[in-house]
Design goal:
The complex is a heterodimer of chains A (111) and B (120). Chain A has 111 residues and is mainly β. Chain A has strands at 3-5, 10-14, 19-21, 24-26, 33-39, 46-52, 60-61, 64-69, 74-79, 88-95, 99-101, 105-110. Chain B is built from no helices and 12 strands. The chains are: A mainly beta (111), B mainly beta (120).
Chain lengths: 111, 120
Protein backbone atom coordinates (compact mmCIF):
# COMPACT_ATOMS: atom_id res chain seq x y z
CA UNK A 1 0.00 0.00 0.00
CA UNK A 2 1.11 3.52 -0.75
CA UNK A 3 1.77 5.86 2.17
CA UNK A 4 2.83 9.48 2.44
CA UNK A 5 4.58 10.91 5.49
CA UNK A 6 5.15 14.51 6.46
CA UNK A 7 7.25 14.69 9.60
CA UNK A 8 6.73 18.38 10.32
CA UNK A 9 3.23 19.08 11.68
CA UNK A 10 3.95 22.79 12.04
CA UNK A 11 6.55 25.18 10.70
CA UNK A 12 7.11 28.89 10.68
CA UNK A 13 9.26 31.17 8.57
CA UNK A 14 10.02 34.86 8.48
CA UNK A 15 8.65 36.80 5.57
CA UNK A 16 11.10 36.85 2.63
CA UNK A 17 13.04 33.87 3.99
CA UNK A 18 13.22 30.35 2.56
CA UNK A 19 11.59 27.28 4.06
CA UNK A 20 11.67 23.61 3.14
CA UNK A 21 8.85 21.19 3.86
CA UNK A 22 9.66 17.49 3.98
CA UNK A 23 7.78 14.56 2.50
CA UNK A 24 8.57 10.89 2.13
CA UNK A 25 6.44 8.23 0.53
CA UNK A 26 6.38 4.51 0.05
CA UNK A 27 5.32 2.69 -3.09
CA UNK A 28 6.25 -0.27 -5.19
CA UNK A 29 5.22 1.49 -8.38
CA UNK A 30 7.84 2.91 -10.72
CA UNK A 31 5.79 5.47 -12.59
CA UNK A 32 3.64 7.86 -10.61
CA UNK A 33 3.02 11.51 -9.86
CA UNK A 34 3.78 13.56 -6.78
CA UNK A 35 2.12 16.80 -5.80
CA UNK A 36 2.22 19.55 -3.25
CA UNK A 37 -1.15 21.10 -2.49
CA UNK A 38 -1.86 24.22 -0.48
CA UNK A 39 -5.01 24.56 1.60
CA UNK A 40 -5.55 28.10 2.88
CA UNK A 41 -8.18 28.94 5.52
CA UNK A 42 -10.84 28.94 2.78
CA UNK A 43 -10.11 25.18 2.54
CA UNK A 44 -9.98 25.26 -1.27
CA UNK A 45 -7.25 22.86 -2.40
CA UNK A 46 -4.72 24.59 -4.63
CA UNK A 47 -2.11 22.76 -6.65
CA UNK A 48 1.32 24.20 -5.93
CA UNK A 49 3.59 21.95 -7.96
CA UNK A 50 3.68 18.51 -9.54
CA UNK A 51 6.46 16.07 -10.36
CA UNK A 52 6.36 13.10 -12.67
CA UNK A 53 8.39 10.22 -11.30
CA UNK A 54 10.01 9.36 -14.61
CA UNK A 55 11.43 12.87 -14.91
CA UNK A 56 14.72 13.34 -13.10
CA UNK A 57 14.66 17.11 -13.36
CA UNK A 58 13.15 18.78 -10.32
CA UNK A 59 9.98 20.76 -10.97
CA UNK A 60 9.94 24.50 -10.42
CA UNK A 61 7.05 26.97 -10.32
CA UNK A 62 8.14 30.53 -9.62
CA UNK A 63 9.06 30.65 -5.90
CA UNK A 64 8.28 26.97 -5.39
CA UNK A 65 10.65 24.15 -6.21
CA UNK A 66 11.01 20.52 -5.24
CA UNK A 67 13.88 18.22 -4.44
CA UNK A 68 12.81 14.84 -5.79
CA UNK A 69 14.95 11.89 -4.75
CA UNK A 70 13.31 8.84 -6.29
CA UNK A 71 15.62 6.24 -4.78
CA UNK A 72 15.13 7.69 -1.33
CA UNK A 73 11.41 8.24 -1.98
CA UNK A 74 11.72 11.80 -0.84
CA UNK A 75 9.88 14.83 -2.23
CA UNK A 76 10.56 18.09 -0.37
CA UNK A 77 9.11 21.50 -1.20
CA UNK A 78 11.18 24.66 -1.02
CA UNK A 79 9.43 28.01 -0.80
CA UNK A 80 11.67 30.96 -1.53
CA UNK A 81 10.97 34.58 -0.62
CA UNK A 82 8.10 33.52 1.64
CA UNK A 83 5.06 35.75 1.57
CA UNK A 84 2.24 36.23 4.07
CA UNK A 85 -0.14 34.63 1.58
CA UNK A 86 1.85 31.42 1.80
CA UNK A 87 0.42 30.80 5.26
CA UNK A 88 -1.61 27.60 4.86
CA UNK A 89 -1.69 23.86 5.30
CA UNK A 90 0.54 22.09 2.81
CA UNK A 91 -0.16 18.52 1.78
CA UNK A 92 2.20 16.24 -0.05
CA UNK A 93 0.34 13.77 -2.23
CA UNK A 94 1.11 10.72 -4.31
CA UNK A 95 -0.93 9.35 -7.15
CA UNK A 96 -0.72 6.20 -9.18
CA UNK A 97 -4.43 5.68 -9.59
CA UNK A 98 -6.01 7.50 -6.67
CA UNK A 99 -4.48 10.33 -4.68
CA UNK A 100 -3.03 9.57 -1.25
CA UNK A 101 -2.38 12.59 0.95
CA UNK A 102 0.14 13.06 3.70
CA UNK A 103 -0.96 14.37 7.09
CA UNK A 104 -0.01 17.94 6.24
CA UNK A 105 2.29 20.68 7.48
CA UNK A 106 0.86 23.89 8.85
CA UNK A 107 3.05 26.74 7.64
CA UNK A 108 2.94 30.17 9.19
CA UNK A 109 4.72 33.10 7.58
CA UNK A 110 5.66 35.67 10.18
CA UNK A 111 5.82 39.34 9.20
CA UNK B 1 -8.42 25.98 -16.02
CA UNK B 2 -10.81 23.22 -15.11
CA UNK B 3 -13.46 24.18 -12.56
CA UNK B 4 -15.29 21.94 -10.15
CA UNK B 5 -18.23 23.19 -8.14
CA UNK B 6 -19.96 21.75 -5.09
CA UNK B 7 -23.39 22.42 -3.79
CA UNK B 8 -24.30 23.25 -1.14
CA UNK B 9 -21.26 24.94 0.38
CA UNK B 10 -22.62 24.28 3.84
CA UNK B 11 -25.61 22.44 5.24
CA UNK B 12 -27.10 21.86 8.66
CA UNK B 13 -29.47 18.97 9.15
CA UNK B 14 -31.18 17.07 11.92
CA UNK B 15 -30.00 13.69 13.05
CA UNK B 16 -31.67 10.89 11.10
CA UNK B 17 -32.22 12.86 7.91
CA UNK B 18 -30.42 12.42 4.60
CA UNK B 19 -28.31 15.02 2.85
CA UNK B 20 -27.23 15.14 -0.78
CA UNK B 21 -24.07 16.91 -1.93
CA UNK B 22 -23.50 17.62 -5.62
CA UNK B 23 -20.16 17.81 -7.38
CA UNK B 24 -20.04 19.20 -10.91
CA UNK B 25 -17.24 19.60 -13.43
CA UNK B 26 -18.11 22.81 -15.25
CA UNK B 27 -15.84 22.83 -18.26
CA UNK B 28 -14.50 19.33 -18.80
CA UNK B 29 -15.67 15.75 -18.80
CA UNK B 30 -14.88 14.08 -15.52
CA UNK B 31 -14.42 10.39 -16.13
CA UNK B 32 -13.52 9.84 -12.49
CA UNK B 33 -14.58 11.68 -9.38
CA UNK B 34 -13.27 11.25 -5.87
CA UNK B 35 -14.93 12.00 -2.57
CA UNK B 36 -12.90 12.98 0.47
CA UNK B 37 -13.70 13.67 4.07
CA UNK B 38 -11.66 16.09 6.15
CA UNK B 39 -11.90 16.60 9.89
CA UNK B 40 -10.55 19.81 11.45
CA UNK B 41 -6.78 20.07 11.30
CA UNK B 42 -6.51 16.70 9.59
CA UNK B 43 -5.71 15.53 6.12
CA UNK B 44 -8.07 14.51 3.36
CA UNK B 45 -9.23 10.93 3.66
CA UNK B 46 -10.42 9.28 0.47
CA UNK B 47 -13.88 7.83 0.90
CA UNK B 48 -14.64 6.52 -2.56
CA UNK B 49 -13.85 6.68 -6.23
CA UNK B 50 -16.60 6.88 -8.79
CA UNK B 51 -16.40 6.33 -12.52
CA UNK B 52 -19.16 7.55 -14.78
CA UNK B 53 -21.76 4.87 -15.27
CA UNK B 54 -20.19 2.44 -12.81
CA UNK B 55 -20.65 1.63 -9.17
CA UNK B 56 -18.40 3.52 -6.81
CA UNK B 57 -15.39 1.86 -5.21
CA UNK B 58 -15.32 2.52 -1.48
CA UNK B 59 -12.23 2.65 0.70
CA UNK B 60 -11.90 0.24 3.56
CA UNK B 61 -13.97 1.29 6.54
CA UNK B 62 -16.39 3.49 4.59
CA UNK B 63 -19.98 2.31 4.82
CA UNK B 64 -21.35 2.12 1.29
CA UNK B 65 -24.93 1.99 2.52
CA UNK B 66 -24.47 5.16 4.49
CA UNK B 67 -22.55 7.17 1.91
CA UNK B 68 -24.32 6.65 -1.38
CA UNK B 69 -22.41 7.83 -4.42
CA UNK B 70 -23.87 8.25 -7.88
CA UNK B 71 -21.92 9.31 -10.97
CA UNK B 72 -24.62 9.34 -13.57
CA UNK B 73 -23.00 11.69 -16.06
CA UNK B 74 -19.60 12.96 -17.07
CA UNK B 75 -20.23 16.22 -15.25
CA UNK B 76 -22.09 15.25 -12.09
CA UNK B 77 -21.47 13.06 -9.08
CA UNK B 78 -23.54 13.08 -5.92
CA UNK B 79 -22.82 11.96 -2.38
CA UNK B 80 -25.82 11.23 -0.18
CA UNK B 81 -25.27 10.86 3.54
CA UNK B 82 -28.16 8.71 4.69
CA UNK B 83 -29.56 8.78 8.23
CA UNK B 84 -26.96 11.34 9.22
CA UNK B 85 -25.65 11.44 12.77
CA UNK B 86 -23.55 14.05 14.58
CA UNK B 87 -20.41 11.99 13.98
CA UNK B 88 -20.94 12.46 10.23
CA UNK B 89 -20.35 16.19 10.67
CA UNK B 90 -17.31 16.99 8.60
CA UNK B 91 -15.97 18.80 5.56
CA UNK B 92 -16.60 16.86 2.36
CA UNK B 93 -14.52 17.58 -0.72
CA UNK B 94 -14.89 16.20 -4.21
CA UNK B 95 -12.32 16.17 -6.96
CA UNK B 96 -12.50 15.28 -10.62
CA UNK B 97 -10.09 13.83 -13.12
CA UNK B 98 -10.74 14.46 -16.75
CA UNK B 99 -10.17 13.19 -20.20
CA UNK B 100 -8.30 15.05 -22.88
CA UNK B 101 -8.44 13.77 -26.45
CA UNK B 102 -9.55 10.39 -25.23
CA UNK B 103 -6.67 10.00 -22.80
CA UNK B 104 -7.22 9.98 -19.06
CA UNK B 105 -5.12 12.70 -17.50
CA UNK B 106 -3.48 11.31 -14.39
CA UNK B 107 -1.33 14.26 -13.59
CA UNK B 108 -3.93 16.46 -11.99
CA UNK B 109 -7.19 16.36 -10.12
CA UNK B 110 -9.37 19.41 -9.82
CA UNK B 111 -10.93 20.04 -6.46
CA UNK B 112 -14.27 21.47 -5.53
CA UNK B 113 -14.51 24.08 -2.79
CA UNK B 114 -15.94 21.63 -0.27
CA UNK B 115 -19.16 21.25 1.69
CA UNK B 116 -19.36 21.70 5.42
CA UNK B 117 -21.93 19.32 6.92
CA UNK B 118 -23.20 19.83 10.45
CA UNK B 119 -25.58 17.26 11.90
CA UNK B 120 -27.48 18.38 14.99
Amino acid sequence: AQTVTQSQPEMSVQEAETVTLSCTYDTSESNYYLFWYKQPPSRQMILVIRQEAYKQQNATENRFSVNFQKAAKSFSLKISDSQLGDTAMYFCAFTYDKVIFGPGTSLSVIP
Amino acid sequence: GAVVSQHPSWVICKSGTSVKIECRSLDFQATTMFWYRQFPKQSLMLMATSNEGSKATYEQGVEKDKFLINHASLTLSTLTVTSAHPEDSSFYICSARGELAGVIVYNEQFFGPGTRLTVL
